[in-house]
Every structure is written in structure tokens, then in C-alpha cells.
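Input for the complex:
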Amino acid sequence: MVLGIEFIDIRTNERQALGIRKGFFTSPPGKRLDLTRNIVIPAFIDAHSHVINYTMKANWIDLSNVKSKRALLNMIQETLNSRNLFLGYNFDESTWSEREFPTRREVDEVSGNKPVLLLRIDGHLAVVNSGLIEKLKLPENMFKDFGNGIIVEDNVYIVIRKLLSKRKLGPSIKALQSLLKLGIAASADMGSIVEPSDKIKKKLSRCMEVYFYYCLESIERQIQEGLDKTMFKYGGIITGFKLIADGSIGAKTAYLFEPYSDDPSCRGLLLIPEEHLEELIKAANRLEAQLAIHAIGDAAIDVVLNAYRWAKPGLRHRIEHFEMPHDDHIDKLAKCHIIPSMQPNFIANWQQRGGLYEQRLGWERAKRMNPLATILAKAGLIAFGSDNMPSDPLYGIYGAMTHPIESERLRFAEAVQCYTTHAAYSIFAENKLGELREGYVASFLALESVDIHNPKEVRNARIQQLFVRGKKISCQA
Ligand SMILES: [Zn+2]
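Predicted:
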């Protein structure tokens, strides 16, 4: 049993010591584990995650490593030799040589009559085949493009719920443990396909601190039924509400001022009219509830920040993604104390030269996205999360360190702070999580000694010791 640790604080470069008792950091004891040769940081807090979806998708097929449309079609054909259903997620056509979605007809050719659903990596678009349309009797008006089998936004989840209601799929604890092994000891769940029962929430909370955010429907129900404060607490876990104002760049549903470069007829979608948003914000004031509003495109960000002028101070409202802000948006955000909740892994995924954002928006707009250093300087904080695309925080930190505009890059210690202290603040857990300090939960990791100024070394750094609530966890994958 480890009674205490000795380490170097990465912010001050000073030697520190802490004891560990009953899951918390305490004053240092005599006997300590020497971690001064490692890089010791608090365990990560994923401020924007979909923990329930992630664990439920343990039975789905991860398509993130599929390199071309052809390879995907071959994979579907092969898999369906031994299965009756193909549920794939995380496909990203922007990384394929063909750079186009598979069509319903192409999927039909390799799947026979067996149902297939392919969920795009951003979760805002899915392609389905004729077998699935028949099985669920899906009407034509559910589709964005019926001929090609394309569904977007809410309809994606209506279809998945319909499909899952015919099968029993619970969350997998093993999948949750794979998140723990990445050094993530707490997550904010920003909504799931199926709303989890209290029993499932308690089960998950035994492994990880999970903070649940409710979807839009719940807040409307709350308004109708009147105030019910008990909804905000589950065993002491505070929750807020998640609203979605627009879609994603990949699905061309993020709401923009200027059209998409690769589709001049399209400016994306505003999913909530501004007046409705204002009503919801006023309702949140009455409930004293925190809101987390998804806004990626510059026009959506504009609408959301405008509506936030009605927000009561102190509720720590958040804006999720905040990918295309203009300078005046950043000023407004800082002035209203809205918390930017951002995903630095998106920079590594899509914001590099020749990547998806450049394809969709042109380089001039693409390179200016996610201006982390400017936002951090003006707002004083950024809550980092992964949206599980992928979940690895070190990959996200690598993204923050490799922004295409050099002056927008963060240093390692700054990025870690966004993924710990600031993320904790965004979920009202700053007195408990995200610091190596007496009285805080003893969840931390010791990375192998790498050059923290080198993003590639950071990305590949191995976690040599991992402690969650004072207990050592094996990090072997
Ligand atoms: Zn999300």
C-alpha cells in the first residue's frame, strides 16, 4: 500500500510531497513513493464525454481505423457472414481516398438483406441500408437523402433507439475501465442514446465520477411540471442540461455565416430558434440550473452568446465545442463568464493542412478555428474534453500543442490545467477534483519522463503509475 508520494510540481518545478488516506490526499507521511523522475499530474477530467454511449458501443464495430470506403464495404460483407446486424461507428470519410459517404446502394450490394447502420464519427449523420429501412419500417421523410440512406441529427438517435429497443444492451464496465486506463477519473456525460436508469448511474459511479447532463426534453418537462431540485442530485452528483444549437462541420450541419466552401448552397442548420433558446435560458435561471449548449459554427455561436445575455450570473453556463468564434464572440464569452468547453483532439483530427476542416471551409477559415491561446488569455479558463473522438486526453493535449497557428498553441502544463483544474470548475468539482493538493481526491498519474515541449513525445508517453481514489490501477491495456 502506498502511503504517500513525492513528485515535482510541473507548474512550479518544485518538489512536493503528499500523503494518501482513504482515497484522499493528506499531509505527507514519512514513507513515500519517489515519483520525482516521472511527470506527475492530476487524473484527467473529461468535461465533454458520452460515457454511457461509449460503454454501450462496446458491442459495436469501431470504424475509426478503416482507411477507405472500399475497405469498409469489404468489412461489412465479411462481418455479415457470421452476424445478422452490422452496427458501425466512428467512420470518417474525410480521411479516405474516396472522400465520400458510402451510399445505400453500395451497402446493399455487400449486405444482402441484413440491416446495416454506419454512424459518422461526429454522431450527427448516419448511413443505413435497405435491410434496416425495411426492418424498422422507416418512412422517407425521416431522411435527409432517402435514395442514399442518409439521416442526420435527431433522426439518427430515433433510429438507433428503435433498433436498440429490439435488443438488450447495457453499459459495459470493461469499456469504462478502458477509459480509466487512459487516466480519466471523472467525466461529464453530455447525453446518451438511451437515458440510463439510476441503477446504471450508480454502477458507473462506483468506477468513475460521472456527472450527468440531461437533454432538452427533460428541461421542457421540468418547466411544465414545475421545479424539482432533486433531479439535480444523484448521490451528490450535480447535473445540468445539454442543449444543441447546431450540428457538425463534417456533416455540414454546423451553422455558418458564410456557406461551406465545398457546398455553396449550404450554411448548416440552426436547431433552436433564438426566441426558444431565450425561453430555455430563463427557465434555467428559475431552476438555478447550469446549461451546456452545443455550438460549433460561427453563426450558432453568435445566436447562443446573444441568448446568454439573459443568463443569471453564477450558474457557470457552458458553451460546448465553441470551434469557430470571432474575436468579438470571445470578448462576449469572457464578459458573461460563459465557460468554453472545447475538444483539442479535433485540432489533431481535422484542423491540420489538407484535413476535413480545410475541405469544408477553406484554409483561411479552418486555420482560425479553436483559437485556444486567445480564448485562454481572455476567458481565463477552458474546460477540455474529448467527445470520445477518440477519448485519449494525451492525444487531445497533443492537438492543443500542434494548432496550425503557432501563437494559438498551448504549452503542456496549460493544456493539462484545462484537462484538470478548469474541467473540474466546469462541473462544480473544483474543491474535490483536478488538483494535487491536501483534501482532494487522490486520483493522479505518473507519466514516463518525456520532453514535455515535444508534442509527439507527449502523445506517446506511457502512463507508468495510475491511482484512482487512492488505489493503484493497472494500466496495461
Ligand atoms: Zn458530444
